[in-house]
Amino acid sequence: MRVNVARLRQFSSWRNAIQEKNHSVNAFVHVAPPAVSAVEHDVPLRDVAVGLKDMICTLDMATSSSSLMLKEFKSPFDATVVSLLREAGADIVGKLNCDEFGMGSLNIHSVHGPVINPFQLPSSVPWAEREKRSAGGSSGGSAAAVAAGMCYAALATDTGGSTRLPASYCGVVGLKPSYGLISRWGVISFADSLDCVGVMAKDVAGTKRVFDVLNAHDSKDPTSVSSAVRQLAAQEANKAWPTSSLANLRIGIPQEYFPSELSDEVLTPVRAAIAGLQSQGATVVPVSLPSTPYALSAYYVISSAEASSNMARYDGVEYGLHVPPPPGSNLKNTASIYAHTRSAGFGPEVQKRILLGTYALTADAFDNYFLQAQRVRQLVRDDFNQVFRARDVLTSSPANADGVDVLIHPSAIRTAPPLEASGDDGIGTYVQDVLTVPASLAGLPALSVPVQKEGWPVGVSVVGQWGCDDVVLRVGGFLESL
């Protein structure tokens, strides 16, 4: 068998970086050995190193979701996105740390320990002794691995901001695609109506390179959108913004996305980025999305309710952790038997969300919480449809000829918080998602692009109409070049 020595060296370079840096970042929880094919193929991701969030199933590596419940679980198949990456020639370098079952904003709720942000301000202190800050969550391992140069790109998941928030904290590009464009088959569920597979890379071009490989209909995923609908959305986007000139681009600045909690270290570079696009010919207009203040509360009700349903499958009987009941237990009571496994296997954050979601679905609370949250979700969608120039092809909403092509706003209300201060499980941790959840509730594409030239990374989010992912990526390219 003929093996390309240059390719072996390239594979080794990524793994050398992992070996050198991962002990100080804790991004990788499993590193795969190089699998070099002797066949030379002209494929789009040939030899590109890609890391996978530990919620994406792989045949040859364990998939734990960073939970004790699935610590030894090994999937009997590859997720669709993994199969597509392998077919495109990608080198799957390993699995990446995350918040347990994707539940968290700071990547501190993991059986593997917290992920440490690899960024360091100019300093004489050795890199391994740098200031320890959060990498963001839940896909902190994905963002940190890309930021530290341990892989070219990484797959994440995004339920309410889990791709964009860590991308902002670590200074990388993070894309949450339109809901239904990338297959979720083989991706462990948190909240099915919200979950998306995200893509992270150092730049917009790298992100688009991986996204284009994954952007395909999958008959195994019932939420995967058909090719015909994808083409229709692309036509609508092209009709609204037919050229790549900023002179024809209308940018909306939602006033509700600049809350009082927004720090000055974020506000200043975001304003500079908007001014930079405007100076190059883009039209910037203020817009209002009045349902935004209610989006965060609605998101946590809906996501927790769906999570409580999804987590019910982990009962210690079919797969995953099993904790035998102690002697003397009532073995005829199934709930009691399940409780021992679930109490030991789930961490406190997952248990908290299961309890919240279960309550929201009870007969007494269903109307006041879950149904109300769904109504707010529809209002959020309506707000977006009223401001975008492109038509929403998934509904009968009419186009707004005077609307905007994209929205631009901060990705996070602050820069990465110190890790030692991230252990507070109060409401402050949930507020981290306040700027990212509206796009998730509406299923819209959203891209976080780093814009801070000095100091800790700051991300700016570009949000587009459903299916207008290419528009979002093109605008992200302009932001990147400022």
TrEMBL record:
Coiled coil: none
Amidase domain location: 18-472
Molecular-function annotations in GO: ATP binding; glutaminyl-tRNA synthase (glutamine-hydrolyzing) activity
Superkingdom of the organism of origin: Eukaryota
Keywords: ATP-binding, Ligase, Nucleotide-binding, Protein biosynthesis
InterPro entries linked to this entry: Amidase (IPR000120), Amidase_dom (IPR023631), AS_sf (IPR036928), GatA (IPR004412)
GO CC field: glutamyl-tRNA(Gln) amidotransferase complex; mitochondrion
Gene Ontology biological process terms in this record: glutaminyl-tRNAGln biosynthesis via transamidation; mitochondrial translation
Protein name in the entry: Amidase signature domain-containing protein
Species annotation: Roridomyces roridus
